[in-house]
């Protein structure tokens, strides 16, 4: 008898219950356990396929530079995978230690069926780990892209500030209401200042856009 306090039934246990309702018989408790592990593996395999499809979709969006809220979606999927790994990681090892020296009352066919179910569960857990690592790599790549975009934005703001600096300096100096302002009595003084500011701005702009190609 399986007793649980969950409001929603576990899918693997629910599949086992449906099999019993269909009239499927089990000759021993170990055979029942092997069937439960097999159902659990099938449920996890379906979950892995669904998650892999979502990861493939996010990876395609990443390659095409069409990211939206995929960071939160990847984080949610990774949390579920980590939770499943923590719950299932010890299960195959514990059962394999039992089968390493099985009790005498265990039948050989039950031992073989349970060993096969354990091997399938181990493969599923390995797939969970591999998919979790893949999601982690995608998260790191998305973070690197965001950092690169932030660096480009900061560089653009720096370039704009540098290009506007000569104009601000000249306007500040020549806007002082004091005597001795250079070129104040020169009829060509305005155009000389315009030429100086334009030359400095062009040189700074050329240097800045040349540096931009390195990013």
From TrEMBL:
The chain crosses the membrane at residues 154-178, 190-209. Keywords: Cell inner membrane, Cell membrane, Ion transport, Membrane, Transmembrane, Transmembrane helix, Transport, Zinc. It is found in: Cell membrane. GO terms for cellular component: plasma membrane. Gene3D superfamilies: Magnesium transport protein CorA, transmembrane region. One of its GO terms (molecular function) is magnesium ion binding. It comes from the Bacteria. It is a multi-pass membrane protein. Its main location: membrane. InterPro entries: CorA_cytoplasmic_dom (IPR045861), CorA_TM1_TM2 (IPR045863), MgTranspt_CorA/ZnTranspt_ZntB (IPR002523). Belongs to the CorA metal ion transporter (MIT) (TC 1.A.35) family. This is Cation transporter. It comes from Pseudomonas savastanoi pv. nerii.
């Amino acid at each position: 008898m399986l007793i649980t306090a969950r409001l929603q039934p576990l899918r693997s246990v629910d599949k086992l219950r449906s099999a019993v309702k269909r009239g499927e018989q089990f000759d021993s408790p170990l055979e029942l356990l092997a069937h439960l592990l097999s159902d659990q593996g099938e449920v996890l395999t379906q979950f892995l396929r669904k998650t892999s499809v979502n990861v493939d979709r996010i990876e395609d969006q990443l390659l095409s530079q069409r990211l939206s809220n995929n960071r939160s979606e990847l984080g949610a999927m990774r949390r579920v995978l980590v939770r499943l790994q923590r719950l299932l990681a010890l299960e195959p090892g514990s059962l394999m230690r039992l089968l390493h020296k099985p009790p005498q009352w265990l039948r050989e066919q039950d031992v073989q069926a349970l060993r096969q179910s354990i091997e399938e569960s181990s493969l599923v857990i390995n797939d969970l780990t591999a998919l979790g690592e893949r999601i982690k790599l995608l998260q790191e790549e998305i973070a690197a892209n965001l950092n690169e975009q932030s660096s480009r934005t900061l560089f653009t703001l720096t370039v704009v500030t540098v290009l506007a600096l000569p104009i601000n300096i000249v306007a500040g100096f020549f806007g002082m209401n004091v005597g001795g302002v250079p070129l104040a009595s020169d009829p060509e003084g305005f155009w000389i200042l315009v030429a100086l500011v334009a030359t400095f701005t062009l040189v700074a702009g050329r240097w800045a856009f040349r540096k931009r190609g390195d990013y």
